[in-house]
Every structure is written in C-alpha cells, then in structure tokens.
Amino acid sequence: MPDIHDPEAPTAIRVVDLVRDYPRPRTSLLQPAPVVRALRGVSLEVKQGERFGIVGESGCGKSTLLRLIAALDRATSGHVIVEDTDITRLPECRLRSLRENLQLVFQDPMSSLDPRMRVRDIIAEPLVVQGHPASGQRVRELLEAVGLSADAGDRYPHQFSGGQRQRISIARALAPRPRILIADEPVSALDVSVRAQVLNLISDLVDELNLTLVFVSHDLSVVKHVCDRVAVMNAGQIVETGYTGDVYAAPQHPYTQRLVSAIPTLQRALSGATTADLLAKGESA
Amino acid sequence: MNDVLTVRGLSVTVRDTALVSDVDLTVGAGERVGLIGESGSGKSLTALSILGLLPEDVRAGGSVRLDGVDHELVGADERRMSRVRGRDIAMVFQEPMTALNPTMRIGDQITESMLIHRSRTKAAARTAAADLLELVQLPTGTLRAYPHQLSGGQRQRVVLALALANDPALLICDEPTTALDVTVQALVLDLIVRGVVDRSSALLFITHDLAVVATVCERVLVMYGGRVVEAGPVNEVFTRPRHRYTEGLLAASDLESTSRRLTTIPGNVPPAGRFPSGCVFRTRCAHATALCEETPAWTGSETEGFACHHPAGVADA
Domain range spanning residue B106? Predict the structure, then answer.
C-alpha cells in the first residue's frame, strides 16, 4: 500500500517555475524564429524516499522535464534544486555530486547500451568515469542484485533479451550508489510477462536501497502500480498532482478525466465496456 | 453464421525452424476475434501468411480459405493474391509511418485502392474517399495532404480508411494502436470497431495488450511459441483461464491488484526456434512434469479449448 509520506521529510527534488523554450529554425527573414514552448512553468516537489510518477502523452514535455532535472539540458528560466543544490546554472564540472546521486534508466534498452562494450564494462563505466575503483566484486554484486548470473558480465548487450537488457541498465544506474533513480518509460518496450519482472525489480531495489524514485510513463496504470504520488502533464504544464489512488479514482482536471477513461482495463472490459466507453469524457469512475 | 476465414493446420517455417505450428482458426462474418501473445509468439506471422506476405525463404503450409474466394490462399501465386488483398482481406499494420506512400497525396492513395480492384469508377472513388475520411473523423482537406503532414494517430486513421475502402470481408489489424497515445488509441479502436460492425466484416485483431483485446473482441486465441495454447470467448478465457500460460499472463498484467509485487512468469520468452519440444511453455511453467515433454492434445472444441496437460481450474491438476 502506498505509505503516506511524512510531509516533514526533506525534499529530494524541487522544481520551481521551470520553462524551456526551443527555438526553431527561422522560416522568414522578417519574422523572428518560431519557438516551441516545451515546458511552460512547471513546479513540483519530490520528497526523499518518495515514489513520484509523471504521466502524460507524447509531446507533453515529460522527457524535457527529466532532462532538466538530470542537468542534461539547460532551462530557459526557473530552477531545479536537487538535494539543496540549485543545479540550474551550474557548469558541468560542478555537477559531479549530481551525477553520483542521480541516475537514469532509459526507455529503449536496445539503444541505451553500447553494443561494443562487455556488460561488466557497461556497469562499471559510471564508477570509472567518476574515478572510483571499479572492482569486479562490485559488478558481480550489481549483477546479482538485478537477477543476472555473474557470467553475464562477460557477454555483450546483443546476447540478452529486452528485459535482461533493462536489468543491465538498472545495474548500471545503481553502480555509483545513487540516492535518486529516474526511470524514463523503463517498461514501455517490454512484453507483459517481462514487464512484471522489471517492475518488481525496480520496486524491490527502491525499497532495499531507500531510493527516491521518479518514474515517467505514458501508462497511468503502470504509474498507479508503482508510485505514491503522480503529476499529470499536458502541453508543457502540470495539470494535476495528487496521490495516485485519488487521481485515478477521482480525476479533477478535464484532461486527466479523459486520460483515465481512455485506458482500457480488463475489469471494465469484462463488465461490458466497449470502445465507445473509452471515449466517454469525464465519466465518473 | 458462415465462416469468413478458415485456417487449418497452418505452419510457418524458415529453413528447418518451425515458427508457427498447427494453427487452427476460424472467424465468422461480423465476428471480432483477438489473437494475443508476446513478441515472438508467431501472431504476426500468422497474419502475414493469411495475406501471403511472408518474406522470401519463409514458407507457409496448411490451408487458409476465405469465403467467396475459390482457391487456397496458402501458396497462391502473386497474381491471384493481389486480387484478394485489399479487396477481400485488408490489413492495418502497426507502423502508420511506413504503411503509407510518402510521395502520394492521401486522396490518391485511397482512390487507388478502389481503382486497382475496379470496384468504383474514378468519380465514385473520389466521393467514396471523402466519405471514408469523414468516417474516420478527418477533415476533407486531408485528401490533399501528404502523409508527413499528419500525426501518427491521423495516419493510422488514414490507413484504416484505406483498409475499409473496398468493404473487405475480413479486416486484419496487427497491433494497430501500439505506437499511439491512450486517448488516440481510444479513438482508433472505436473507429475500427464501428468500421467492421457497419460492414459486418470479420475482424482479426492482433495485439499483446489483454485489456485492448477484451474491449474490442468477442473471442480470443492465446498464442505462445508459435502455437495456439488456448481459445475461447473473451469473458471465459480472461476470468477462468485454463492454460498455465494464459493464467500467468493475466496475473502479470494485473496492475490493479493492491499488492506491490506483481505475479510474474519466470524466465524470458525464448527466441524463435528455441522453444522446447512438447509443451512450448514447459520451461517456464511451475506445473510442468515429465508428461509435458509430449505435445499436449487440444482439449475442447475448435472455438473453445486449450492445450495443457495440467490445466488450471481443476482440483487435481
């Protein structure tokens, strides 16, 4: 059950009025270049030890938001504060503590692993980069933690299935012992039976290692399963934030209502819901 | 109810590797049948072999008959198949980006499908194309647009309009909404269902999403390792699964349960051709015994049954 977190718990991530504009190429000599407003003033707060979900459809700005939180991109205005450090304007050389404390797992396990590196080198890379001794012992520990055999370290990414590759990505993310784990659609590319394994793994590791989890997905039912709190994004803004159970059961914003009613579920289908019901807007659940 | 599509003992092989074995399947007129399974289970190959679109060196065996077509579809030559494709059987593919011709306007692509099969005159095809776009809720201006000007959901709706252009007896949809957002998916699913219901066409709907199948279809076949392991009405299969794989799949996708841990199926889906002999699921099944080394026989009728030595829902399994 989602444990209600102590409101006094220290903040892990605070985002204040974040704006990110992407200028597009000029189309006219006389007019200024058009601008895509990817984020239009996003504010949120994630407490330490919380499992925080971000849902939204493609193009809503959720990946831009993640990139800014991970300092992989620069904000146009606003602030990102991770564990009391404002990282918004820090130069790369001063981001070292962020790179250790905050790690990412990406959506596509095929493209996020270097095909020419052995798995043990992939997992050890974050340690090597940050100047830690990358012992074989630590790599074996990590492989075991994500449920892969120790000899997996000698093989290459293409020798693994999608689910196993996502385990490798998780092992790599955990290598520098981060306190915050950000997962960007980690199970979208996986089959149902494997998805359950990876969700369980993430859940267990977050509990065991006391991590703060930021879980991004387009799938509200997955977020509902994993997260305590959720923010719903649409067109670069957060339209609704709340405890996942509440948002799912009684969505307040019209967009969230549409989103929730569009999700096909087995229970609803078996009780006779048809495709027309998916389109029903603002239907009370 | 006459059967529109009858598939008997369909097998698909590439050199010595069997990818699909012994698939029996019928779809009646106006019936909506789902085919579910994880990647590598052979569901797309089944669809492609019905259409005769298998890649070179991949061979189909068995029998595929379509009501109203007087020849066998397996092994039919290209000339005969191209008369069936797009007229009697139409298909909506997963990727709307690659299914359309990037150099042709939408209107021309839709009319072409009618002109090729000579189902309408040029003028009638024009009006029909506009009507079809209206049916899939796109503005008439879309007729003059090129595919790159449309979003993924709009393109998938164009593909659907194209598929319905000749009022096919059978519409095959292969993961039509996997690449789409949920709200767009809801619209496309509704359009597919309305499209086939209005024409009383048969629908073969392929997906890995159990909830989508349950919403769209009346009957479902579960595939694993290139075999149909269970079949039956949606309500029956999803509430009282008999095959251990279906049971595991249902448990693994149950995100509604209140417990933090999901029930999982151990292991991974083996790569094609590496499935065990006998029962294809035995390497991942908790109930497997020595008996499972023999291929389990089909229990039940053709439309409702399962292939398992230790079925779920029996006291002494």
Answer: 98-167
Query: Do A240 and A255 have their domain in common?
Result: no
Q: Do B214 and A266 touch (CB under 8 A)?
A: yes
Rounded to 5°, angle at Cα B24 from B23 and B30: 125
3-class state of residue A20 by DSSP: strand
Is residue A78 one of the residues assigned to a domain? yes
pLDDT of residue B60: 92
Q: Do A193 and B39 touch (CB under 8 A)?
A: no
Residue B215 pLDDT class (50, 70, 90 cuts): very high
A78: domain CATH number? 3.40.50.300
Q: State the average pLDDT over residues A34-43.
A: 91
Q: What is the least distance, in Å, from the CA of B211 to any CA of chain A?
A: 5
Query: With pLDDT > 70 as the criterion, what percentage of chain B qualifies?
Result: 98
Residue B133 lies in a domain: yes
- A-side interface with B, Cβ within 8 Å? 1, 57-58, 161, 163-164, 191-197, 199-200, 203, 218-222, 224-225, 258-259, 261-270, 273-276, 278-279
Q: Verify whether the Cβ–Cβ distance B252 to A269 is below 8 Å.
A: no
Q: Are residues A283 and A229 in the same domain?
A: no
* Higher pLDDT, residue A220 or A230: A230
Nearest CA in chain B to A59: B181
Helix (H, G, I), strand (E, B) or coil at A79: strand
pLDDT attached to residue A285:
36
Identity of residue B56? E
Quickly list DSSP for B32-68: EEEEE--TTSSHHHHHHHHHT-PPTTEEEEEEEEETT
The predicted structure's pLDDT at residue B161: 93
Same domain, A239 and A255: no
Q: Residue B102: which pLDDT band, with cuts at 50, 70 and 90?
A: very high
**Does a structural domain hold residue A254?**
yes
CA distance B162 to B150: 15
Mean pLDDT of A162-178: 90
Could you give the number of structural domains in chain B?
A: 1
Q: Report the number of distinct structural domains present in chain A.
A: 2
Asked if residue B122 is part of any domain, the answer here is yes
- CB B303: neighbour CB atoms within 10 A? 16
Q: Is the same domain home to A189 and A212?
A: yes
How many degrees, rounded to 5, is the angle at CA A205 between CA A204 and CA A211? 120
Tell me: do A199 and A214 sit in the same domain: yes
Q: What is the pLDDT of residue B222?
A: 95
Residues A102, A20: one domain?
yes
- Given a cut of 60, whether residue B255 has pLDDT beyond it is yes
Has residue B259 been placed in a domain?
no
Domain of residue A118, residue span: 11-24+33-248
CA-closest candidate to residue B277, choices B289, B292, B260? B292
pLDDT digits (tens, 9 = 90+) for A232-256: 999 999 999 999 989 988 999 999 9
Rounded alpha-carbon distances, angstroms, from residue B231 to A209, A249, B66, B275: 43, 33, 21, 20
What does pLDDT average to over chain A?
A: 87
Q: Considering the domain boundaries, does residue A183 fall inside one?
A: yes
Q: Quick one: pLDDT at residue A5?
A: 56
Q: How big is chain A by its Cα radius of gyration, in Å?
A: 20
Task: Note whether residue B143 is domain-resident.
Answer: yes
Which tens digit of pLDDT belongs to each residue from B18-47? 899 999 999 999 999 999 988 888 888 999
Same domain, A179 and A280: no
